[in-house]
Structure formats: C-alpha cells, structure tokens
Design brief:
Elements: E1 35-36, E2 65-72, H1 78-88, E3 98-105, H2 107-120, E4 126-130, H3 135-140, H4 157-162, H5 165-170, E5 173-176, E6 182-185, E7 189-190, E8 199-204, H6 205-210, H7 219-232, E9 237-240, E10 259-260, E11 275-278, E12 285-289, H8 295-299, H9 309-317, E13 338-344, H10 348-358, E14 364-368, H11 371-374, E15 381-383, E16 389-392, H12 400-410, H13 414-422, E17 429-432, E18 436-439, H14 466-469, H15 472-482, E19 487-489, H16 503-514, H17 525-541, H18 544-562
C-alpha cells in the first residue's frame, strides 16, 4: 500500500513507527488494523471483533478535547445544536469532554480545500470526502485511518447498531498491493439514507387525466402518454432525459444475470461503460466487454449476453429522440416544460415542488423505471450498497478515539441523530409520529441547516416528509428503497481499478469516449452504431486489448482474494 511520508500523530510530534506503516495504519493502542486477505486473520470478517474484546484503547477520554469536523456545503446555526449536545452529555464522563467544532466548505471549493488539507495535514479530525474527489486513490495512498476496529464492537454500540450486516461489508475497501495481493479495511464511513436510489420519471398526472390516457404502469403506457402530450401541447417537449443514457441496461436495473457494470469498472467514462461477465458462482471472470466488441468476445459472456447488447442499448435510447429537447447539444439550449422528467426518487419532492412553482396547476406523480423495482421484488437491486458520500478520519489525527466516541453517540439513538440532522425539535422541526417530520415556521436566519449527505445520513434513522406520509403510493416506493431486503451486495463491491500499468492507454481511449456525446442522444440509430464502431476501432488502436487484459487480471485477483482462494 502506498503511503504518504507523514506522521500518524500530530504534526508537532516526532516521527515514529514509520516502519510499522507498511501494511496498515496504527490505531490508538492497537495492532495492525488492516488485514491481508489470505492471512491467518482472514477467517474473521474485515468488520468483526469478538463480542466484548477489542484492540481499541480501553481508557476513556479523560481530558477535554475539541474534534474539528469539516462538511461539504452550507451548515447554518450549528452553534445552537452544539450547545444542545453539550447539555445532553453534561453528565456523561466521556462525552462531556468531547467538543465538536463544525465548519463547512461550499461544494465548488471543496476539492481544492480537500487536497490542501491532505497536503498540509491540517488540524481536521473528521471530514467529508466524495468518491468523485478521489476517495479510492486517497485510501490507496494512506491518507485516511483504518477504522475497522470501531465497528461491530460492543464498546461502540451506536456504531454497531447503525452500521451492520451487508452495509458494513459494503464499507470495506480492498486495497491492491504491488504484488497483486489485497488488504482490507474500513477507511471511510458511508453516508446513506437508502443503499441505492430508485430511478424513474416524474410525470404530469393532470395532463394524463386531461387527455384520458391510461394509467402509467409500464414503458408502453408511459410512451403513449408522452406521445399524446406532444401532439396536443405544442409548447411542451415530451421528455426531459438529460444524461440518463443507460436507461435499459443492467447499470440501473436488477436484471444483471451475472453481468456487472459499476463505477469501479467505468474505466473510460460513462458513455463507453465496461461490462464484466462472471461465472454463476461469481468466482471467475469470464470476460470484460465494451460496445463494438467482436462476436468472439461476447461469446465468452454469460448466457443472455452473448451478443453486442451494449450497442443495442445505445440504439434503443434513440427511440426517445423525437421527444427530447430539440436544441440539446447547443451551447445555450432552450428549455421547455416536459410531460415527463427523469428524477431519482429522493429528488422527486424538491423537483416536483419546483415544477409546481413554475406551473401552479400541474400535478405530479412518480413512475419507477425498472420492472422488478416497480413490482417491489426482494433482492432486485444489485449494487455496491454504498453511496458516493463518505466521512473519513485523516491518518495524522491524534484524536481518532474521541472522534469515534462522538460518532458512536451521534449514531447511537434517534434523538442524538435527529439533533445533528434536523436541529432542535420543537424549534427547527416537529415530529410526525415515530418516523415523520415537518419543518417549523422558524425564519431562515434562525433555522439550523446541515447537509445530511455530508455528515448524518444513515438508513436506520429515516424520517418521512408530510408529502410522502400523505401519499400511499409514494410512501410505498420509499419504503421499498429503504428496505434492506431490496438489495443484494454486488460481488464486485470493494473493487477499484489500478490503472498505473495502462495510464496512457486509458487516457487516450477516454479522450475518444468523451467525444461521443451519446449521453444527449444527438444521433439516430444508424449513426449511433457507426459512432460506436468508429470509437471501437480507434480504441483498439490505442490499446483497448491491453486495458481489457489488465482489468481481467485485477478483477480475478480481487475475486480470488475476496473468496480466499
């Protein structure tokens, strides 16, 4: 594992124990935190500690300590919530000595500030890191502490309750070594309220009723509604689809059938996704394919995917073209209201409220795209069971124990969690039953604001809004999205591609991919096929096969290590 040449203690402390950092970070009073897969410790899970036993330093916090926390995007009136926290823990001999100090950085500046914090080893003990900022690379370089020993640990019951089962498995990172082996550990805490967002369309229910269209229950009835609106509403377009390219592919559905395409294998960019075919027991890599590959390559894939299904998806996408914004792709496209708009379920409430502000007479409903999810089938969603939002502890912080005690408290009860997510009950918000909430009329100047995705989200502490509580159909969609039984952990969860051996090839092929512009459907069917064929020929010349073989090698090493073979 590559490591920065930094101290694990405070910057003013002498450099010590450098040799012990080769395989893992040294936790407070602990032995090695990382476990090498295939070693004697591999019979334990990466996330388990025998009940009542722990390597965590046993002595509690005995002196006052301030933990510095950085979140992404605006947090307002945090002082009053911290004051309430101090009141709640005043009689606790440990928590009363732990004082959180929370600052925020706006999203536009966050990446630069994050890199500066890592380079300068700033006095930060807990901070947000989005996966798009390079989380995997930072873990590989040793910037973040291994927190494995704090989870599934009776000394930290709050964390044990809030992060358990497959969610904890999903938080485990597998770090590739130079010899192709892997170590595993928990280097970040995932912020999620659902493991994966349901994707669908918000549609104009008032127009459906106005024109007597059938209830929208499948793709055909959806498209018939769009067609009717376009024929009768000349000032509207049919679909606001923006960059939702792989609409009918395994990326967004549960129909994987041993074929997987995930962010960790998205080597060349979203427009030329890579699909990985695995054996039925998910222990062997059968092949890795991209659009335009030969029949011989697709023949190695699992049954049902032994043809160029990727190009087929691109062609199917062009069926939407006549209903899309006609000025898409222009420098300043003219936006029109749409009969249906792509939306994640979690965004539906805000997006529909905004739409009603623009068109007060409009009424909106939500349609889930995937058949299995729409029918509420168990285990229909195969994914990483981890969002892009993470909290990390810098490896140089000497307040890791205090930080984890604070997180254990915050995630230890609904009352504690709600305080930092919503603010002071009765002042910033009011409870509706056990699982609902509504905002109060407090002024914007006084209201507590916390970007929950950056600090507090957890599937165990979800509260429904009034809109959801009062809409049985919508609540059923949210119930399904929040249920553990909806999800299966992908066998590729935890994998990350190390492109160091093929950097030039990946860069050159990615540049070709970026030129395609398939994601806004500028092409008709024949032209889309031609563009992909041209891309494939150019990609082959740029080293596509070299990248394919490197990816297959790393994926197989990963699976072998993960399955202890």
């Amino acid at each position: 594992m590559k490591r920065r040449n930094t101290n694990l203690a405070k910057r003013v402390t002498a450099t010590i124990m450098a040799a012990a950092m080769v395989m893992g970070l040294v936790a407070c009073g602990s032995a090695e935190s990382s476990q090498e897969i295939g070693s004697d410790t591999s019979s334990q899970t990466a996330n388990s500690t025998e009940a009542g036993e722990s390597n965590v330093e046993a002595s509690p916090i005995t002196k006052d300590v301030t933990i510095n926390i950085r979140v992404m995007n605006e947090a307002k009136n945090v002082d009053k919530v911290i004051a309430k926290y101090e009141e709640m823990v005043a009689d606790d001999p440990v928590m009363s000595k732990i004082h959180p100090n929370i600052e925020y950085v706006i999203g536009a500046d966050y990446k630069d500030k994050l890199n500066m914090a890592l380079s300068a080893q700033e006095d930060i003990d807990l901070m947000f890191c989005g996966s798009w900022y390079g989380l995997t690379k930072f873990i590989q370089e040793g910037d973040f502490a291994d927190l494995t020993e704090y989870f599934d640990n009776d000394q930290f019951p709050g964390l044990k309750t809030a992060f358990s089962g497959q969610f904890l498995d999903a938080m485990t990172s597998y770090v590739r070594q130079e010899d192709g082996s892997y170590t595993k550990g928990i280097y970040g805490i995932n912020m999620a309220n659902a493991y994966e967002d349901s994707r669908g369309f918000m549609y104009r229910e008032d127009l459906r009723q106005k024109y007597g269209c059938d209830e929208i229950t499948d793709r055909d009835s959806l498209m018939a509604f769009v067609k009717t609106v376009c024929e009768n509403e000349p000032d509207m377009m049919g679909v606001n689809l923006w960059n939702f390219f792989y609409l009918d592919s395994p990326v967004y559905t549960g129909k994987h059938d041993n074929v997987f395409s995930q962010d960790s294998t998205e080597v060349f960019g979203d427009q030329t996704r890579i699909y990985v075919g695995l054996s039925e027991d998910h222990t062997k890599v059968l092949n890795v394919v991209v659009a335009g590959d030969s029949e011989e390559e697709f023949a190695k894939m699992p049954e049902g995917y032994q043809y160029d299904f990727i190009t087929e998806y691109a062609v199917k996408r062009t069926e939407w073209n006549s209903y899309l914004n006609p000025s898409r792709g222009e420098t300043t496209p003219v936006e029109k209201p749409a009969a249906i708009s792509y939306s994640a379920l979690s965004e539906f409430e805000n997006r529909s409220k905004e739409a009603m502000e623009n068109v007060p007479e409009s009424e909106w409903r939500f349609y889930v795209i995937d058949d299995a999810q729409r029918n509420k089938e168990e285990g229909a969603v195969i994914c990483d069971i981890a969002t892009n939002n993470w909290l990390v502890v810098p490896e140089w912080s000497d307040k890791k124990l205090a930080t984890m005690y604070f997180l254990d408290w915050m995630f230890g009860s609904k009352e504690a969690h709600d305080l930092f997510q919503y603010g002071i009950e009765g002042e910033d918000w009011e409870a509706i039953g056990d699982n609902g909430m509504k905002n109060t009329d407090i002024s914007d100047e006084e209201k507590y604001v916390m970007p929950g995705y950056s600090f507090t989200w957890n599937p165990n502490y979800v509260r429904y809004s009034e809109l959801v509580l009062n809409n049985a159909e919508l609540k059923a969609d949210f119930d399904y999205a929040y249920s553990d039984s909806t999800y299966q952990l992908s066998p590729l969860a935890g994998f990350s591609f190390d492109a160091s051996n093929v950097e030039t090839e990946v860069a050159n092929i990615s540049a070709l991919s970026n030129e395609l512009r398939l994601n806004i459907s500028l092409y008709e069917a024949d032209e889309a096929v031609e563009k992909l064929q041209t891309w494939h020929a150019d990609a082959e010349a740029a080293g596509l096969e070299t990248v394919r073989q490197e990816l297959i090698t790393q994926l197989q090493q990963f699976l072998d290590a993960k399955n202890n073979q």
